[in-house]
């Protein structure tokens, strides 16, 4: 007598079906495998982005640059002495460590550091829409893979093409990475249950923070050795290529096309993820672009990102040029600031999900509270940094506290594309994140323009206060205009909703008994 086996038909691309055994339960939920891979995706996303922030300290020959400068620095401006008491601890350099290969002034450095974002903002909206139309898995994976290859050729581009060669590579990297955030939202719109969104998205954000932490530490150590800066780009480029191979093998576009997902998990995801529109649904562009809630989200992301990128891109130069940290310790102090953000997110994301699941208050109120704390907290801390002067401990304490409070945005802006329009989450993420990342271009350019060879406390005070003001504006306008409710232009028609409920109940699958 032959044994009866239960099979499930799974719809796959191209209208074909394939047959695979369907288990009642699996040891590891399929969506958690995706979460782990997305964590490492965002780890690489930021590792490949931020390595230049510390490496540029070693790339630029500041000793030669300073000798060629005109005497524009006012001797009455505040400066931190190199022979401060902290030097005894080994954290601070008592003599310049400026032996880099290139003589690039602050404006050129600002252009190079901001070049990434010229490409990054261009592919946000196309990336989101393409992910909805053709699928997010390969778009996201190839985005990081090509960025990794470009990282490997970065040293050669700088040495052959100089500043403009490096700018070109960074723009291309930005174009490739620009599709990642929108693609991830499109992917999670199929996989993320409503009451797990903050937590799942928090792991993506923690991946960016941990990528920043590890990269800054490793970069600082590699750059502390003579001619060690090229190894930074070889190392992280190689790791990115390995990640892509694993991603291609284990990640699937939808739970319905996953060969090992359990019936229990599939039913749970389908019933709790919310409405997902068909890929060929026409976007209501006019409604999206005239929505106050969409623009409020875009503005608050811009304001939050401005302060974040200011610290991410320009803090290494502040620690090196003003507080005179050694390159090796520069990376460590930068990493400490972002590590505090990661740890805080781990604690805060479940709180946001719990508040929503227990329905203690409306989703919009939860998002506004978390976003307000996440922006006003850093605003206060950054406004106090200039008054800490050359006190290294106070400066680092304020920066760590500020980034710990910034972690509250994990329950604010981060899940909102899925809250507002789960069926258009990729496109909405592309629009808001694209606008928000214009600040990545602005922050280094403004820093280069303000500093203008006057690398002093007086000039940096202006920059910290400006970042504080932008943070504050982002929080206030979001509290007034923000909304996390399902938008009218994203809600399904009544007949579509009834069809969705019927399909969810039936699981969209056929059960067969084969002998």
From TrEMBL:
InterPro entries: MFS, MFS_dom, MFS_Na/Anion_cotransporter, MFS_trans_sf
Catalytic activity: 2 nitrate(out) + H(+)(out) = 2 nitrate(in) + H(+)(in); N-acetyl-L-aspartyl-L-glutamate(out) = N-acetyl-L-aspartyl-L-glutamate(in); N-acetylneuraminate(in) + H(+)(in) = N-acetylneuraminate(out) + H(+)(out); L-glutamate(out) = L-glutamate(in)
Keyword Cell inner membrane: no
Transmembrane segments: 28-48, 111-131, 138-158, 164-188, 200-220, 232-251, 293-312, 332-349, 369-389, 424-451, 463-481
Membrane among keywords: yes
Listed SUPFAM superfamilies: MFS general substrate transporter
Keywords: Cell membrane, Cytoplasmic vesicle, Glycoprotein, Lysosome, Membrane, Symport, Synapse, Transmembrane, Transmembrane helix, Transport
GO molecular function annotations of the record: symporter activity
Domain Major facilitator superfamily (MFS) profile: 52-486
UniProt-annotated location(s): Basolateral cell membrane; Cytoplasmic vesicle, Secretory vesicle membrane; Cytoplasmic vesicle, Secretory vesicle, Synaptic vesicle membrane; Lysosome membrane
Pfam families per the UniProt record, alphabetical: MFS_1
Any one GO cellular component localisation term in the record: lysosomal membrane
Membrane topology: Multi-pass membrane protein
Gene3D superfamilies: MFS general substrate transporter like domains (1.20.1250.20)
Protein's GO biological process: carboxylic acid transport; monoatomic anion transport
Function summary: Receptor for CM101, a polysaccharide produced by group B Streptococcus with antipathoangiogenic properties.
Protein name: Sialin
